[in-house]
Backbone:
């Protein structure tokens, strides 16, 4: 659980950084660069011994969904939302994690579901008091697509990882980033992009790609294999109050504090 807390702290700064420095940069470019950096970080550790073609394809698919689709939708949402709003609207992730895990197991774990609902309800109270409910529906919808992709991906990785106890996570994680990078690059290829990045933007991309994405998602998925589905669901909301606090007090966004 310590890993999940550490990653939540790292991710808390991502919302404000993206809005402040990358708000005008094409979302597919941001996603592609960010995931490309994460892939570069883990590519030297890649070892395919004990990974057959079918399993490798599964890992590519999980990465494409959990990181690729998630990032494309998430970063695009900043066209419509403030950073604290994007953070707040991730509140549905815990319930999606729990429900999807239970659906795959063909069971219902009342305590895990209750814990996830409690996390959502507590954060929803903050959202109702701090967010303009007239926020663009497009931004809200994009965040929900992002939440669903991230929830499904981490549950699937837990299941695949459980079937291969001899694996060392860092030796296969490049496959997830490769799948994610492929999706983002394909999306970027459909855009006509012309941009000159300034130093703060380059530094932000390095932070997001190497720390928030590269190290962050690796440590998150490793942590996800070491806790129960209920704990994982609740921890998906730890970044919400942290992200809101960073957006308001570090990046000076304005909101109704009461």
Residues:
């Amino acid at each position: 659980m310590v890993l999940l807390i550490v990653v939540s702290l790292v991710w808390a700064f991502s919302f404000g950084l993206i809005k402040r420095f990358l708000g005008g940069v094409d979302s597919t470019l941001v996603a592609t660069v960010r995931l490309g950096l994460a892939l570069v970080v883990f590519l030297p550790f890649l070892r395919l011994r004990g990974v057959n073609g079918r399993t490798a394809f599964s890992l590519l698919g999980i990465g494409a969904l959990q990181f690729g689709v998630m990032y494309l939708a998430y970063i695009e949402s900043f066209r419509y939302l403030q950073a604290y709003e994007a953070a707040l609207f991730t509140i549905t992730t815990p319930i999606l994690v729990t429900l999807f895990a239970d659906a795959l197991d063909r069971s219902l774990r009342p305590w895990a579901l209750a814990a996830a609902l409690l996390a959502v309800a507590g954060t929803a109270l903050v959202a109702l008091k701090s967010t303009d409910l007239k926020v663009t529906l497009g931004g809200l919808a994009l965040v929900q697509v992002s939440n669903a992709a991230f929830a499904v991906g981490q549950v699937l990785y837990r299941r695949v990882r459980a079937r291969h106890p001899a694996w060392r996570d860092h030796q296969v994680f490049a496959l997830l980033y490769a799948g994610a990078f492929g999706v983002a690059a394909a999306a970027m290829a459909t855009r006509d992009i012309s941009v000159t990045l300034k130093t703060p933007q380059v530094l932000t991309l390095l932070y997001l790609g190497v720390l928030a994405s590269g190290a962050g998602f690796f440590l998150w998925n490793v942590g996800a294999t070491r806790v129960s589905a209920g704990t994982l669901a609740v921890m998906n909301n730890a970044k919400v109050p942290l992200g809101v606090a960073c957006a308001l007090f570090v990046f000076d966004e304005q909101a109704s504090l009461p």
Summary: The chain has a mean pLDDT of 87. DSSP finds eleven helices and no strands in the chain.
